[in-house]
């Protein structure tokens, strides 16, 4: 017969199994920075989001946090022109880099944003994982290829997040996924087909991020 202490211990053990190691619902907007030197300096690891301006990075942040009002989603691609930090459960930062490749902003501003995004990876930030977002409806752009090559050359851990899967049938999404992986020579890179609209693939991506961060200790 179980004693009261044993019952409490049993309940706590079951709760621990069910309790996620990282609660994405505890994601808060933290800071913005125009350069890496102005970024948070508390040493928390970073999961960096990179991709074209219209790849849906802000929507993905909201989907991961299950909070549609957390990151500002603009109908005008290229709106995010600073590095934006979101603290996830005091475990890591979800870092949103300015999107690249949007033609409607000036050449000078595009150059500054590109420089900011590129320099971020070589400024000694505690980057532990990069989420490279690509619109699954389209083949990778030249900037996407350059980013992939850079991540491969620097041996930086990254995954491909093929977003906007709700815009295609399941068969089309599967076909496009194979084309994108082949175009990037990324068949061996972890990849996730997701939709921020119907939340397909979001839990799988959260589990991967959690396992990666937890494994760092």
Q: How much of the sequence is in beta strands? A: 15-25%
Catalogue the unreliable spans.
Answer: 7-17, 103-113
Q: Name the overall outline.
A: globular
CATH topology term = Rossmann fold
Distance between the termini: 38 Å
What is the CATH class designation?
Alpha Beta
Q: Find the structural class using helix and strand composition.
A: alpha/beta
Question: How is this structure best described in words?
Answer:
The chain is of the alpha/beta class. It has one domain (21-215): Rossmann fold. It is 36% helix and 19% strand. It has six helices and seven strands; from the N terminus they run αββαββαβαβαβα. It has helices at residues 4-18, 57-65, 107-120, 142-153, 170-183, 202-215; strands at 27-33, 46-51, 83-88, 92-96, 127-135, 158-163, 191-193. A seven-stranded mixed beta sheet has the order 1-3-4-2-5-6-7, with helices on both faces. Strand 5 (127-135), helix 4 (142-153) and strand 6 form a beta-alpha-beta unit. It is globular and about 45 Å long. The N and C termini lie far apart (38 Å). Mean pLDDT is 84; it is low at 7-17 and 103-113. Necessary for normal cell division and for the maintenance of normal septation. Its cofactor is Mg(2+). Belongs to the TRAFAC class TrmE-Era-EngA-EngB-Septin-like GTPase superfamily. EngB GTPase family. It holds the Pfam family MMR_HSR1. Residues 43-215 form the EngB-type G domain.
Give a topology summary.
Blueprint (H helix, E strand, L loop, with lengths): L3 H15 L8 E7 L12 E6 L5 H9 L17 E6 L3 E5 L10 H14 L6 E9 L6 H12 L4 E6 L6 H14 L7 E3 L8 H14 L2
């Amino acid at each position: 017969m179980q004693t009261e202490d044993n019952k409490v211990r049993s309940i706590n053990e079951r709760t621990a199994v069910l309790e996620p190691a990282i609660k994405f619902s505890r994601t808060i907007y933290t800071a913005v920075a125009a350069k890496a030197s102005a970024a948070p300096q508390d040493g928390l690891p970073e999961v960096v989001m990179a991709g074209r301006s219209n790849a849906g990075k802000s929507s993905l942040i909201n989907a991961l946090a299950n909070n549609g009002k957390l990151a500002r989603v603009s109908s005008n691609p290229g709106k995010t022109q600073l590095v934006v930090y979101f603290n996830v459960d005091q475990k890591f930062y979800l870092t949103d880099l300015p999107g690249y490749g949007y033609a409607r902003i000036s050449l000078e501003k595009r150059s500054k944003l590109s420089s900011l995004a590129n320099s971020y990876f070589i400024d000694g930030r505690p980057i532990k994982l990069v989420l490279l977002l690509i619109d699954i409806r389209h083949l990778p752009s030249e900037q996407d290829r350059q980013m992939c090559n850079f991540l491969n050359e620097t041996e930086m851990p990254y995954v491909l997040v093929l977003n906007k899967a709700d815009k295609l049938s399941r068969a089309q999404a599967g076909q496009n996924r194979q084309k994108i992986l082949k175009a990037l020579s990324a068949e061996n890179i972890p990849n996730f087909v997701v939709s921020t609209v119907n939340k397909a693939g979001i839990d799988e991506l959260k589990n991967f991020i959690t396992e990666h961060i937890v494994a760092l200790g």
